[in-house]
Amino acid sequence: MARVLGVGGIFFKSPDPQALGGWYARWLGLRVEPWGGVVFMPDGMPPGGGTVWSPFKETTDYFAPSGKDFMFNLIVDDLDAALAQVAEGGAQVFGRAEEFNGRFGWFMDPGGNKVELWEPAVPAAEAEAEARAD
Questions:
Q1: Exposure string for 77-114, b = 16+ CB within 10 A, e = fewer
Q2: Domain assignment of residue 81, yes or no
Q3: What is the pLDDT of residues 26-38, one digit of tens each?
Q4: Is the residue at 116 inside a domain?
Q5: H/E element, 19
Q6: Facing residues of 117 across strands?
Protein backbone atom coordinates (compact mmCIF):
# COMPACT_ATOMS: atom_id res chain seq x y z
CA MET A 1 0.00 0.00 0.00
CA ALA A 2 1.27 3.49 -0.84
CA ARG A 3 1.51 5.93 2.06
CA VAL A 4 1.86 9.65 2.57
CA LEU A 5 5.37 10.79 3.50
CA GLY A 6 4.80 14.47 4.22
CA VAL A 7 3.14 17.67 3.15
CA GLY A 8 4.20 18.65 -0.35
CA GLY A 9 2.88 22.19 -0.36
CA ILE A 10 0.47 24.82 0.85
CA PHE A 11 -1.51 26.39 -1.95
CA PHE A 12 -3.97 29.26 -1.61
CA LYS A 13 -5.56 32.04 -3.60
CA SER A 14 -4.51 35.69 -3.43
CA PRO A 15 -5.79 38.76 -5.26
CA ASP A 16 -2.13 39.75 -5.84
CA PRO A 17 0.19 36.72 -5.49
CA GLN A 18 3.31 38.67 -6.49
CA ALA A 19 2.74 41.40 -3.89
CA LEU A 20 1.95 38.88 -1.15
CA GLY A 21 5.07 36.87 -2.04
CA GLY A 22 7.09 40.08 -1.87
CA TRP A 23 5.62 40.88 1.55
CA TYR A 24 6.69 37.46 2.92
CA ALA A 25 10.14 37.86 1.36
CA ARG A 26 10.62 41.26 3.00
CA TRP A 27 9.14 40.59 6.44
CA LEU A 28 9.92 36.89 7.03
CA GLY A 29 12.89 36.33 4.73
CA LEU A 30 11.25 33.77 2.43
CA ARG A 31 13.26 33.19 -0.73
CA VAL A 32 10.46 33.44 -3.27
CA GLU A 33 11.44 31.79 -6.55
CA PRO A 34 10.75 33.46 -9.92
CA TRP A 35 7.78 31.09 -10.42
CA GLY A 36 6.19 32.62 -7.28
CA GLY A 37 6.68 30.00 -4.58
CA VAL A 38 9.15 28.82 -1.95
CA VAL A 39 10.54 25.31 -1.52
CA PHE A 40 11.39 24.29 2.04
CA MET A 41 13.81 21.37 2.00
CA PRO A 42 13.78 18.85 4.88
CA ASP A 43 17.43 19.49 5.77
CA GLY A 44 16.50 23.11 6.51
CA MET A 45 14.09 22.04 9.26
CA PRO A 46 15.31 22.85 12.78
CA PRO A 47 15.71 20.05 15.34
CA GLY A 48 12.33 19.26 16.84
CA GLY A 49 10.51 20.77 13.84
CA GLY A 50 8.03 18.90 11.71
CA THR A 51 4.93 19.36 9.61
CA VAL A 52 1.48 18.74 11.07
CA TRP A 53 -1.54 17.56 9.09
CA SER A 54 -4.69 18.09 11.13
CA PRO A 55 -8.35 18.38 10.11
CA PHE A 56 -10.43 20.62 12.37
CA LYS A 57 -14.15 20.50 13.07
CA GLU A 58 -16.02 22.84 10.74
CA THR A 59 -17.31 24.74 13.80
CA THR A 60 -13.80 25.65 15.02
CA ASP A 61 -12.95 29.27 15.70
CA TYR A 62 -9.21 28.49 15.72
CA PHE A 63 -8.78 30.15 12.30
CA ALA A 64 -10.50 33.38 13.44
CA PRO A 65 -10.31 36.27 12.84
CA SER A 66 -9.79 35.03 9.26
CA GLY A 67 -13.00 34.00 7.55
CA LYS A 68 -11.12 31.45 5.46
CA ASP A 69 -11.41 27.71 5.89
CA PHE A 70 -7.68 27.20 6.33
CA MET A 71 -4.69 28.48 8.24
CA PHE A 72 -1.04 27.74 7.71
CA ASN A 73 1.86 27.36 10.10
CA LEU A 74 5.40 28.55 9.44
CA ILE A 75 8.38 27.42 11.51
CA VAL A 76 10.60 30.30 12.67
CA ASP A 77 13.89 30.51 14.53
CA ASP A 78 12.85 33.45 16.74
CA LEU A 79 9.13 33.90 17.41
CA ASP A 80 9.36 37.30 19.09
CA ALA A 81 11.50 38.79 16.33
CA ALA A 82 9.30 37.30 13.59
CA LEU A 83 6.12 38.72 15.17
CA ALA A 84 7.79 42.14 15.51
CA GLN A 85 8.86 42.01 11.85
CA VAL A 86 5.41 41.18 10.48
CA ALA A 87 3.84 43.85 12.71
CA GLU A 88 6.31 46.37 11.28
CA GLY A 89 5.21 45.18 7.85
CA GLY A 90 1.58 46.02 8.64
CA ALA A 91 0.30 42.61 9.74
CA GLN A 92 -2.21 42.36 12.57
CA VAL A 93 -0.55 40.36 15.36
CA PHE A 94 -2.99 38.97 17.89
CA GLY A 95 -3.22 36.68 20.88
CA ARG A 96 -0.47 35.96 23.36
CA ALA A 97 2.36 33.61 22.54
CA GLU A 98 1.49 30.13 23.78
CA GLU A 99 3.81 27.30 24.72
CA PHE A 100 3.27 23.68 23.67
CA ASN A 101 6.16 21.80 22.10
CA GLY A 102 7.70 25.20 21.51
CA ARG A 103 6.18 28.66 21.21
CA PHE A 104 3.33 29.78 18.95
CA GLY A 105 2.09 33.20 17.83
CA TRP A 106 -0.39 34.41 15.19
CA PHE A 107 -0.95 37.18 12.67
CA MET A 108 -3.15 38.10 9.71
CA ASP A 109 -1.17 38.68 6.53
CA PRO A 110 -2.06 41.39 3.97
CA GLY A 111 -4.11 38.79 2.06
CA GLY A 112 -6.40 38.11 5.04
CA ASN A 113 -4.84 34.72 5.87
CA LYS A 114 -4.34 33.72 9.49
CA VAL A 115 -0.77 32.51 9.93
CA GLU A 116 0.53 30.59 12.92
CA LEU A 117 4.26 30.93 13.64
CA TRP A 118 6.00 28.13 15.54
CA GLU A 119 9.39 28.26 17.21
CA PRO A 120 10.03 24.58 18.04
CA ALA A 121 11.27 23.63 21.49
CA VAL A 122 14.91 22.60 21.49
CA PRO A 123 15.02 18.85 22.12
CA ALA A 124 16.31 18.06 25.62
CA ALA A 125 19.41 16.25 24.35
CA GLU A 126 20.39 19.22 22.17
CA ALA A 127 19.79 21.69 25.03
CA GLU A 128 22.05 19.59 27.30
CA ALA A 129 24.78 19.51 24.62
CA GLU A 130 24.56 23.28 24.17
CA ALA A 131 24.80 23.80 27.94
CA ARG A 132 27.91 21.58 28.14
CA ALA A 133 29.51 23.51 25.23
CA ASP A 134 29.10 26.85 27.08
A1: eebeebbebbeeeebeeeeeeeeeebbbbbbbbbbebb
A2: yes
A3: 999 999 999 999 9
A4: yes
A5: helix 17-28
A6: 74, 105
